[in-house]
Write a structure and sequence with these properties.
CATH superfamily: Metal-dependent hydrolases
Structural class: alpha/beta
Strand order of the largest sheet: 1-2-3-4-5-6-7-8
Largest sheet: 8 strands, parallel
Order of helices and strands: EHEHEHEHEHEHEHHEHHH
CATH topology: TIM Barrel
Bound molecules: 2-oxo-2H-pyran-4,6-dicarboxylic acid
Distance between the termini: 44 Å
Strand content: 5-15%
Number of strands: 8
Oligomer: single chain
CATH class: Alpha Beta
Number of domains: 1
Number of helices: 11
Shape: globular
C-alpha cells in the first residue's frame, strides 16, 4: 500500500549533528516513535495525519549516533490501536527497546501477555483532540484495571487547559501515570502562574505521576530552533522543564520525540536537541536520574543496578 503524506508534512531531519553534551552511559531515549514503513505496516484508517515513513532501522541508527543505549517506542496515533510496527521494532531491538501500546477494550488477555513478552510496559491514553477521536472514560478505566496486574503504567497526553476537567479521571488511575511533554504548558504564560502551578500540584499531590520533560521544539513559541549549530535553543521552555526536573528529580523522563510528528515551523536537528538537556537538568546527578536511573526503574526494573 502506498500513502500520501499530509500536505505540509515535515520529514525528520537527515544527518543530525553529534551532540556536544555527552550523555551518561546507559541513557534511555524514553519517547520516540516508528512510522510504518507504510508499505509494510499500513497507517490506520482512523488516523488524523499521514506521516513520512520512519523505520526501526532509522530509529536505531539515530540512537547509536546520538549516544543513547536504549529506546522507549511509544505507539503513534497514525497507527491507531494496530501496534504491529511498534512491536516489530521492539522485537528487533535486541532487548534495547521497550514499548507503550494503544489498546481497545476488545484486547484479549492473551494479546496483552504477548505484548508484554515483546517488551510493552504501558498503554497510552490520548486526549489531544487533533490526534484522536474520543474514547469513553469507562473504557479507559477498564483497560487500566486490566493492565495494572502486568505492572504496566498509563501514559497520558493532554493539553494544559484540559487538566482541570481530566483531573478526577487521572487521579483515579490505579497505576503509575506518565505525562507526555509536561502536559503541554503554554510557555507564554508565567512559570509561576496558575496554569503551571496546577500541573506542579498534580505531581506533588500524586506521587504516582511522572512527567516527560520532552518536546521543547513543540512547546517553544520564541525559539530559537535547534538548527544551524544553535546550542541555546528553545529558551522559553527552559524554566518550565527545569522546574519539573528540580521539583521531582526521581519522576522525570526525557525523549527525543523523533520523528517529531506534526511540527509545522521546522524540524529540529536531534543532536542539538540533546544539547538542550543540560539546560534543564543542570547537574550530573540530575542528568543521570533523568536519562538513566528513572527510565531504567520504569522500563527495565529487572536490570536496575545490574
Ligand atoms: O503533538 C503531536 O502531534 C504528537 C503526536 C503523537 C502521535 O501522533 O502519537 O505523539 C506525540 O508524542 C506528539
Amino acid at each position: 500500500m502506498s500513502f500520501e503524506k499530509t500536505p505540509g508534512w515535515l520529514d525528520w531531519y537527515p544527518g543530525p549533528s553529534r551532540p556536544a553534551f555527552r550523555l551518561p552511559p546507559g541513557s534511555v531515549d524514553a519517547h520516540c516513535h516508528v512510522f510504518g514503513p507504510g508499505a509494510e505496516f499500513p497507517y490506520a484508517p482512523e488516523r488524523k495525519y499521514t506521516p513520512c515513513d520512519a523505520s526501526k532501522h532509522q530509529l536505531y541508527a539515530l540512537r547509536d549516533h546520538l549516544g543513547f543505549a536504549r529506546n522507549v517506542v511509544v505507539q503513534a496515533t497514525c497507527h491507531g490501536a494496530d501496534n504491529r510496527a511498534m512491536i516489530d521494532a521492539l522485537i528487533h531491538s535486541g532487548g534495547k527497546a521497550r514499548g507503550v501500546a494503544t489498546v481497545r477494550r476488545a484486547v484479549t488477555d492473551d494479546e496483552l501477555r504477548q505484548m508484554h513478552a515483546a517488551g510493552v510496559r504501558g498503554v497510552r491514553f490520548n486526549f489531544v483532540k487533533r490526534l484522536v477521536d474520543f474514547t469513553p472514560k469507562d473504557e479507559l478505566l477498564e483497560i487500566a484495571s486490566r493492565i495494572a496486574p502486568l505492572g504496566w503504567h498509563v501514559v497520558i497526553y493532554f493539553e494544559a487547559v484540559d487538566l482541570p476537567e481530566l483531573w478526577d479521571f487521572f487521579t483515579a488511575l490505579p497505576t503509575t501515570v506518565v505525562v507526555d511533554h509536561m502536559g503541554r504548558p503554554d510557555v507564554t504564560k508565567p512559570v509561576d502562574g496558575p496554569e503551571f502551578a496546577l500541573f506542579l500540584q498534580f505531581m506533588r499531590d500524586h506521587t504516582n505521576v511522572w512527567s516527560k520533560v520532552s518536546c521543547p521544539e513543540r512547546l517553544s513559541v520564541s525559539g530559537p530552533p535547534a538548527l544551524g549549530g544553535e546550542r541555546n535553543a528553545y529558551r522559553d521552555v527552559v524554566p518550565f522543564a527545569r522546574r519539573v526536573v528540580e521539583s521531582f528529580p526521581d519522576r522525570v523522563l526525557w525523549g527525543t520525540d523523533w520523528p517529531h510528528p506534526n511540527l509545522k515551523s521546522h524540524m529540529p536537528d536531534d543532536g542539538l536537541l540533546v544539547d538542550f538537556i543540560p539546560h534543564i537538568a543542570v547537574t550530573p546527578e540530575l542528568q543521570t536520574k533523568l536519562l538513566v536511573t528513572n527510565p531504567m526503574r520504569l522500563y527495565w526494573p529487572e536490570q536496575e543496578g545490574a
